[in-house]
């Protein structure tokens, strides 16, 4: 699972008012190179929840992203390269996503998060 | 907040009561696990269905940078996209682990024209959608929602996930 996916996932357990962002528990992170497409990143930027992305990247061991970001920074290639790395090249291969309200863990195995709920959670 | 319409609803009674479980969703999930192993790499009938559905994207002036592909023949949908809808980011979701793996393996082995689409894979249930509100531009499901029990509930959740 990559961080652009994490930025869209939310816990949907019954009774949870705000299931976003999911906390990340890391067992294994892998990095895979992806071609750099600045326009893709520029289009994507307005929809990102920045704080969730920064926190998630830190949990995965990548601390280069700035605390705050605005669209003027999209001019800088250095910034785009960092964003590219955080969003597209870091993979949470093994670990878990944790619901911020209930602490329920959604396991991530072989890069696929399992967001299915148990019967007593729906 | 759960938008599922079949929970704690004591006000509706009779044969239409939402508490009646018509499908065994857990069994359906196992059946899809099994189907993933028995599927042919490309079934002309399924491909024709997916192709027809994707053709409708060409009728839209709008582009859809972020798309969610749900259940059903999602592997065929991804394989046959060919730039339609200008999709840049695709999330493929299924309740069946083996079906998700099949999509992931097919994507990893691809030699086709969809290499510029960033794809991700999630096990999830459309009746309890794990997608944040206002985060996708398009939801595609090709032959996928027919086993959904709570269709109105799933539709409400899919609507909130759209921008």
UniProtKB/TrEMBL annotation, chain A:
In the UniProt record, what gene is named as encoding this protein? LOC105119939
Q: Which residues form a coiled coil?
A: none
The Gene Ontology terms for molecular function here are: protein heterodimerization activity
**Protein species of origin:** Populus euphratica (Euphrates poplar)
Similarity-based family: Belongs to the TRM112 family.
User: InterPro entries in the record, alphabetically?
Assistant: Trm112, Trm112-like
Oligomer and partners: Interacts with TRM9.
Source taxonomy? Eukaryota, Viridiplantae, Streptophyta, Embryophyta, Tracheophyta
Write down the superkingdom of origin. Eukaryota
What are the GO BP annotations of this UniProt entry?
rRNA (guanine-N7)-methylation; tRNA methylation
| Protein name, UniProt field | Multifunctional methyltransferase subunit TRM112-like protein At1g22270
Q: Which SUPFAM superfamilies match?
A: Trm112p-like
From TrEMBL, chain B:
Q: Which InterPro entries match?
A: Malonyl-ACP_OMT (IPR050602), Methyltransf_11 (IPR013216), SAM-dependent_MTases_sf (IPR029063)
What CDD domains does the record point to? AdoMet_MTases (cd02440)
The Methyltransferase type domain extends over 69-156
Key word Acetylation present: no
Cite a GO CC annotation.
mitochondrion
Q: Which GO terms describe its molecular function?
A: S-adenosylmethionine-dependent methyltransferase activity
Pfam families given for it?
A: Methyltransf_11
A GO BP term, please?
Answer: methylation
List keywords of the entry alphabetically.
Methyltransferase, Transferase
- Determine the domain of life of the protein's source: Eukaryota
Please verify whether the record's keywords include tRNA processing: no
The protein's name: Methyltransferase At1g22800
- Source organism (scientific name): Populus euphratica (Euphrates poplar)
Species lineage:
Eukaryota, Viridiplantae, Streptophyta, Embryophyta, Tracheophyta
